[in-house]
Specification:
alpha+beta, 4-stranded antiparallel β-sheet
Length: 266
């Protein structure tokens, strides 16, 4: 028997009972005793709604409140889930007197210095953070886990520092926001240079706004009113003529005004 399996606050006596007797269980209510368990400490087994189980009463209640979980499992031969249910009903904390006594004995033993050295590696330690990063690197979450994380993060307002860190990581990994869409390929850029914006939008599946913005990024004209083709390229390279003033007379200098010009006729 290990030290952790010893009862720290015993002894615990088996209650007196008879088969068919009705007793009150702290967890399941009124039960009828139908037998005795085969644990190291024999205990009455009660029958009720849901089947048979050990009756949580008498010294067993005192043991659940005071002893460590490993000791109860050893002496009464029950599983972890049963002890968890018993502690939940009795409102026993995770660290009760028996658990604290075992931890104190372990820390004062040979393994104490090693445990304290491992506990010193907190989340602020670079060594600890590197171990966590290496363990989580490449881990793929299930669809259920992703849905839970999304529900937990949805609507959460992140601080400016957190948003800045997320942006730096995304840029370093080459990620793009979903609203921007996939990056432009070389073939799509060639379409922008040779085809009208409407044709580029149809063939690439992108919006007209995205096509116009990409043309501006490539240093091209916006393409809203200018036609495409060789003729459009010739017009774009030719000088733009200066517009002539209204009622201009051929052969006369526009700066020289004739009689009656430049006066208000109102």
């Amino acid at each position: 028997m290990r030290r952790a399996q010893r009862l720290q606050f015993g002894p615990y006596k088996q209650p007196r009972y008879r088969l068919g007797q009705k007793v009150d269980c702290e967890r399941r209510g009124e039960l009828t005793i139908v037998g005795t368990s085969s644990g190291r400490i024999p205990w009455p087994v009660g029958f009720g709604p849901g089947g048979n189980s050990l009756v949580l009463y008498g010294d067993l209640v005192r043991a659940v409140r005071q002893e460590a979980s490993v000791a109860i499992r050893f002496w009464w031969r029950v599983d972890k889930v049963t002890i968890w249910k018993w502690r939940k009903v009795l409102k026993v904390p995770m660290s009760n007197p028996g658990t604290r006594e075992i931890r104190r004995a372990v820390m004062l033993g040979k393994k104490g210095p090693k445990i304290r050295a491992a506990a010193a590696l907190t989340l602020d330690s670079p060594v600890r953070r590197e171990k966590i990063r290496a363990k989580a690197l490449g881990r793929k979450h299930s669809a259920k886990a992703k849905a839970k994380m999304r529900a937990r993060m949805l609507g959460m307002k992140l601080s400016d520092a957190t948003r800045r860190k997320m942006s730096e990581v995304a840029k370093r990994l080459g990620r793009r926001p979903p609203k921007i869409g996939p990056p432009w390929s070389t073939a799509e850029d060639e379409l922008c240079r040779t085809q009208p914006p409407a044709e580029v939008s149809v063939r690439t599946g992108r919006t007209m706004k995205a096509v116009y913005k990409r043309r501006a990024d490539l240093g091209l004209v916006r393409g809203r009113t200018i036609r495409h083709g060789p003729a459009a390229d010739n017009r774009a390279s030719s000088p733009v003529p200066t517009p002539s003033p209204r009622n201009a007379v051929p052969g006369r200098d526009p700066a020289v005004k004739g009689p009656g010009e430049g006066t208000d006729k109102r």
